[in-house]
Design goal:
This protein is an alpha/beta fold and 346 residues long. It has three domains: 84 residues, 3-Layer(aba) Sandwich (Udp-n-acetylmuramoylalanyl-d-glutamate--2,6- Diaminopimelate Ligase, Chain: A, domain 1), CATH 3.40.1390.10; 148 residues, UDP N-Acetylglucosamine Acyltransferase, domain 1 (3 Solenoid), CATH 2.160.10; 35 residues. Helix content is 18%, strand content 29%. It contains four helices and 40 strands. The strands form six sheets. It has a twelve-stranded mixed sheet with strand order 8-11-14-17-20-25-28-31-34-37-39-40. A ten-stranded parallel sheet has the order 9-12-15-18-21-26-29-32-35-38, with no helix packed on it. The longest helix is centred in the last third of the chain and has 36 residues.
Amino acid sequence: MKNKKAYTALELAKFIEGDLTGDPERIISGVSSVENPVENTVVFAENDKFLKKAEKLNADLVITKKEVEAKLDLIKVANPRLAYAKISSLFSKIPFPEKGKAKSSQIADSVQIEENVFIGENTVISENVRLGAGVKIAAGVYVGENVKIGENTLIYPNTVIEKDSIIGDRVIIHSGSVIGADGFGYVQNGKKQEKIAQLGSVLIEDEVEIGANTTIDRGTTKATVIGKGTKIDNLVQIGHNVKIGENCLIVAQVGIAGSVQVEDNVTVAGQAGIVDHKSVAEDSIIAAKSLVTKDLKSGEFYSGNPAQKHSQELRKQAAVRKTPKLIKKVKKLENEINKIKKEMDR
């Protein structure tokens, strides 16, 4: 469905394959919060608590579960959160002109530019770059030599994309990110650290989103790879030669050291770390602030420092919580033993 200013309730119901109860011609021009529903908008109520709020505040249209009933216009779906996400995208405006080149931008003569590309103020596009159709590049972006950027990719202000990087279609890179910085590679020579040249690149596959101020280092001799559909939060560090699979979630302040292999559908929660040359198998979940120091098997939930299966970590934490009581018991026993010794010495 093409983005437009307003839709009927029936159009929205068909778009998310939901069952509409209420006025099919009701006009909806945006989305709003169930705590503060705005006139002519749709809200999201995935549980009874939020549905009661929507009913009390007389929301115009509510996305909710299939099995509920309420005196409101409803679109009933199997997964309300997913349906709301799809509808919200209809009202999301891309903050760039459709096409054009700012006068202050510096574009090398060898750059290949397809149709409907926008290049913002003070942007630098180096030699032999290729920009696919519909690419939008905001102000202050630097694009190095031989970079390839796929169709309908959005690059926000002050991003740096270093030489030889390859960016897929429909990628979003938020402000301040650095793609293709040198990997952290050194070898000790006596008391001096000798730099290992980082001659590889970065490959970002289709439909990846990269948060603000995230850094993805180039490989030493090969590419650092971010798989299709993976979403990376703000302030994430991904080291050289890392390979991340498809549809992963990497949350804020995660640090992934060099040559780590992360398979498909892995979630790494905030401030977790993975040490170099380790592998994380598919469908794993790593809890916040965990430190991965060994290879992880598929389909498990890991937590702790060092990271282990969450059930083991919970048992460890339970034991630690008992420590103060055990210390008191030991001291009590020591005192009793000392009393017995004194009586025996008399």
